[in-house]
Specification:
single chain; about 375 residues; alpha/beta; Nucleotidyltransferase, domain 5; DNA polymerase, domain 1; 3 domains; six-stranded mixed beta sheet
């Protein structure tokens, strides 16, 4: 099926009614984010039962039409591994689509492949090998080539067939309710696209093992960097590399003459700070040094003690046994981080279970709680 490229509002009008009258569509996006803070939407591919349409938001304002399609609650949208698609659409549309059917998640409830790629899934289920030559192409460059358009169209062409096959397998395995619950959670996670400002130190490579009096400076500089990255629409590391950030936290420069050698001794491709930005950075470091201990980031509990490590191994063994019994990946049942958090919040015997469930740890919610979460709580109690 040859994809149709939509490059104007008038072209969009000719296909809009056809798309919005569908109950199910397949969707994918192409975007760039290597040099910018915010991902740049470059193409939206939509397949119906009879058409493959590639909508080009670079050449015209596609937002009104895409809102009518992707925010329509009556249309099921089939994606594969939709988290990045949801993020770029969130920034483009202002909200995320709902009523999602994610084929990667569907497959995870049927096999031990937790995060299978689209091409591998198409090959496994349909015995079709997809062209991968355009994987690293520049999707913002115009005009798009025929090869790019066909490659983009193929990304949604086979989602329809995968949907039908996987849906039947889920029904036979009696796991449709698990899958429906998991996909519903995708629509509630738009907060994931908003950075947690108070935990930015966790995004700085090499920061987790620093002493708290240094870590507070890392945190303050990371907050300053984040704001400037958003303002300039540049990646964090283009504003200030992690190695430079940590060096500043240790050296604590008080003047621009002390600051300059540190920020210029590393990556030359970094954003060149102007005098005002340099003064702001120095004031940020000074403010961090004056912060009370109550405001220091707390990384003391990022490492388990020996008894907790033993508990973790026991819980992991139970998760692995359950995964083997269900013939699915242990990763979809629970992450290691969830198990660590479950161990760390264990307090008094009487309050533990309530506190644990209220913390919203994934393994203690919904189908996971019934599947194994309650068992983990009983063991820890």
């Amino acid at each position: 099926m040859k994809p149709v490229l939509i490059e104007s509002s008038s072209d969009m009008e000719t296909v809009l009614d056809h798309i919005t009258n569908q109950s199910i569509i397949a969707v994918d996006t192409e975007f760039q984010r290597e040099t910018t803070y915010y991902p740049k939407l470059a193409l939206v591919q939509i397949a119906t039962d009879s058409n493959v349409i590639c909508i080009d938001p670079v050449t015209f304002d596609a937002k009104p039409a895409l809102k009518k399609i992707l925010l329509n609650k009556n249309i099921t949208k089939i994606f594969h591994a939709c988290s990045q698609d949801m993020e770029v659409l969130y920034y483009y549309l202002g909200e995320t689509p709902d009523n999602i059917y994610d084929t990667q998640i569907a497959n995870a409830f049927l096999t031990d492949h937790h995060q299978i790629g689209y091409a591998a899934l198409v090959e496994n289920e349909l015995a079709i090998q997809l062209d991968k030559s355009q994987t690293r192409t520049n999707w913002l460059q115009r005009p798009l080539t025929e090869k790019q358009i066909q490659y983009a169209g193929d990304d949604v062409l086979y989602l329809y067939q995968l949907h039908n096959i996987l849906d039947e397998k889920l029904r036979q395995a009696e796991r449709q309710s698990w899958f429906t619950e998991e996909c519903a959670n995708l629509c509630d996670n738009q907060n994931n696209f908003q950075v947690n400002i108070k935990n930015l130190w966790r995004r700085v490579k090499g920061a987790t093992k620093l002493s708290q009096n240094i870590l507070v400076i890392v945190q303050f500089i990371a907050e300053w960097r984040e704001q400037l990255a958003q303002q300039k629409d540049k990646t964090r590391r283009k504003i200030l590399a992690d190695t430079v950030l940590i060096q500043l936290a240790f050296d604590k420069p008080e003047t621009i003459s002390q600051l300059d050698p540190i920020i210029t001794s590393h990556d030359r491709s970094q954003h060149r700070l102007n005098e005002k930005e340099k003064q702001q950075l120095i004031k940020t470091i000074q403010s961090a040094q004056q912060a009370p201990e109550s405001e220091w980031p707390d990384n003391r509990f990022s490492v388990l003690d020996n008894q907790q490590k033993t508990e973790l191994k026991n819980l992991q063994r139970l998760i692995n046994d359950k995964a083997e019994e269900l013939k699915i990946s242990s990763a979809i049942i629970s992450s290691r981080k969830d198990l660590e958090n479950l161990i760390l919040i264990k307090t008094t015997e009487s309050e533990f279970e309530k506190n644990a469930i209220d913390t919203k740890i994934n393994v203690l919610q919904g189908w996971r709680l019934d599947c194994i979460g309650q068992q983990l709580l009983d063991i820890l109690s």
